[in-house]
Design brief:
Layout lengths: L1 H35 L3 H7 L6 H17 L3 H28 L4 H7 L19 H16 L4 H17 L5 H24 L5
Length: about 200
């Protein structure tokens, strides 16, 4: 019950922030980074760590290795969990990108297009939510659950990756916050569900 109340309250806060940011914050913040491009080269490198493909490949390989070669079931389950956390949050993001069809900053700066085109089918209308942010936070939170002593560093890395999406004008601020929210909530929900199913880590 408490989890449901927390989820409902946090979702309402996310929706309220996203709406406020959409109206008043996203364009000024995006314009600042588009015009000044501070540390752009640095953020172009950082943002690559938010791509999910290599994480999924690595986690799948390590799951198979620890499950069937080393026969370490609990270690294998950790990699399985991380794989599902990243893949699942990514799938949710992809569905929402299609549903909302939000125009990316590139369209605003080059064609003065700002807004939402429901059921968008083009990459330039896949701004909300940020997939890189979801990947960074699902992985960061998931890893922190197993290695709590590194939680601060993992959270900091996730924030930096999400922020890089705004810094290189790939997403608006609200896109990254929404993506981060999905990553965090899905990672926490998945851990609880797997434990309920008897999976040991």
């Amino acid at each position: 019950m408490k989890n449901k109340i927390f989820f409902a309250a946090s979702l309402c806060l996310l929706i309220a922030f996203t709406a406020f940011s959409y109206l008043y914050i996203d364009i000024p913040v995006a314009s600042f980074f588009y015009e000044t491009k501070p540390l752009n080269g640095f953020f172009e490198i950082v943002t690559k760590f938010g791509a999910s493909k290599w994480y999924l490949i690595i986690f799948a390989l390590f799951f198979l290795l620890f499950r069937y070669i080393f026969r370490l079931r609990e270690a294998a389950n950790r990699f399985l969990y991380l794989f599902i956390a990243v893949a699942g949050s990514g799938l949710i993001v992809d569905v929402l990108k299609f549903v909302f069809g939000r125009a990316r900053p590139k369209l605003f700066f080059e064609q003065n297009i700002y807004g939402i085109k429901l059921l968008g089918t083009e990459h330039l209308y896949y701004s909300l939510p940020s997939g890189h942010s979801a990947t960074a936070f699902s992985l960061g939170v998931g890893a922190a659950l197993f290695f709590p002593r590194f939680a601060l560093a993992l959270f900091g890395a996730a924030v930096l990756i999400a922020f890089s999406r705004v810094a290189i004008s790939a997403h608006y601020l609200s896109d990254t916050v929404a993506g981060a929210y999905i990553g965090v909530v899905f990672a926490l929900w998945l851990k609880r569900k797997m434990i309920e199913k008897g999976v040991r880590f």
